[in-house]
Design goal:
By secondary structure, this protein is of the alpha/beta class. The chain is 38% helix and 14% strand.
Length: 405
């Protein structure tokens, strides 16, 4: 069944405005049900968890419900869900918690296609004698080559960090083959999924990553984030909370200061929403509905991407930064490009009067834009769509871009 776009758009109050939101990789619009949950938590159960009195028991159960929801979303056990303020924060916590596992002479591999959130925290270990190597993409094809990763690895490699989908390139990286490669060498894998999570179903059993992180405010929810870690891996990490938390206090030892309870409860609404899309498509509840919901999401986004890509590919002045394919298996609906002889800031500002939200810059993937020599052009123009965007909105964007291209 095709996605019911009228139902979809009715779930996001902001979409009733005159603006077309195509800066979704920076943050999606929020579901009405998410806001309702946050309000309900704050107005009816806003007390500290862990006490014996009834309102506290209710608050505690609501936070547990959030772990269960995201366990369902990721196909893992609730005890393997760590929650926090953002992907940047959770990766900082993970890096700190891995201090005891890393010694001078050990090696970490990161990519130059990643958001700085999955690079900067690992560079901190260089002060302790840990070597950080960069896995570079090809500057012409923008692809990461697994043979290059093999060449970088050694017997001292402890961790490989990679993005599931680049927030600039839109490219979907082959996480399972990467996981198999690094695990064969006894190495762990940390995946930043921020730019992937709004677009495809997430199945940790199929992907095989040791750590997998994304932000719910990119997936129709509040400013909040979730990290999956394999149970045995989380148990091995250092406690980064108060001293009286044991090493076995998973996940709480990795959630210093406690989590934002109302955001955790609110974020459940985003999981329920995707599951509802699958139920409307005829799937059974739980994982089947989540997978079916994302299948419809992926097809809607493929059509949007194809419409925009066909336009851009037919303009000699445009260089697409990333794969030129619109195929579901190749990329997500984040499309970046440059215009010959034009500053990216000027291109975006020419679109603003049409009330279409797109963006220019390095998008915190600073090292990639710098390596590609695009910093002096104000980075790339980025159009980042999600399933609630429409072909009519893409046509509006094309009409607004045409005079500039």
């Amino acid at each position: 069944m095709a996605l019911d776009i009228d139902f979809v758009r009715s779930q996001f109050p902001a979409l009733s405005s005159e603006w077309a939101f195509m800066d979704n990789a920076g943050g999606s619009q929020t579901l009405e049900r998410v806001a309702a949950r946050i309000s309900d938590y704050l107005l009816t159960s806003n007390v500290q968890t862990g006490a014996s009195y009834e309102p506290s028991l209710r608050s505690t159960e609501r936070v547990r419900e959030a772990r269960r929801a995201y366990a369902r979303f990721l196909n893992v056990d609730p005890s393997e869900i760590v929650m926090g303020a953002s992907t940047t924060a959770l990766l900082r916590y993970l890096s700190e918690a891995m201090t005891g596992k890393l010694a001078a002479g050990d090696e970490i591999i990161v990519t130059n296609t990643d958001h700085e959130a999955n690079i900067g925290p690992w560079l901190k270990h260089e002060a302790r004698g840990v070597s950080v190597k960069i896995w570079h993409c090809d500057p012409e094809s923008f692809e990461l080559d697994l043979d290059d990763l093999k060449a970088l690895m050694s017997e001292r490699t402890k961790l490989v960090c990679v993005t599931h989908a680049s927030n600039i390139l839109g490219t979907i990286n082959p996480i399972r083959p990467i996981a198999d490669l690094v695990h064969e060498a006894g190495v762990e894998l940390c995946v930043d999924a921020v730019a992937y999570a709004p677009h495809r179903a997430l199945d940790m059993q199929a992907l095989g990553a040791d750590y997998y992180v994304f932000s719910s405010y990119k997936v129709f929810g509040p400013h909040f984030a979730v990290m999956y870690g394999k149970g045995d891996k989380l148990a091995e990490l250092d406690n980064i909370y108060h001293f009286f938390f044991s090493k076995q206090s998973v996940p709480h030892k990795l959630e210093p200061g406690n989590i934002n309870y109302e955001s955790a409860y609110g974020a459940i609404g985003a999981v329920d929403y995707v599951e509802e899309l699958g139920l409307k498509a005829g799937a059974s509840a739980g994982r089947p509905a989540i997978e079916a919901g994302f299948a419809d999401i992926a097809e809607q986004e493929r059509a949007l991407t194809e419409r925009l890509m066909d336009f851009l590919k037919n303009r000699n002045s445009v260089r697409i930064i990333g794969r030129r394919s619109s195929a579901i298996e190749d990329r997500v609906s984040t499309v970046s490009f440059m215009v010959e002889g034009k500053d990216s800031k000027a291109v975006v500002e020419a679109v603003d009067p049409a009330k279409i939200g797109i963006r220019h810059g390095h998008f915190y993937a600073y090292r990639l834009i710098d390596d590609l020599g695009l910093m002096d052009r104000n980075g790339v123009v980025r159009v980042s769509m999600v399933h609630y965007n429409t072909l009519a909105e893409v046509d509006r964007l094309i009409a607004a871009l045409e005079p500039t291209l």
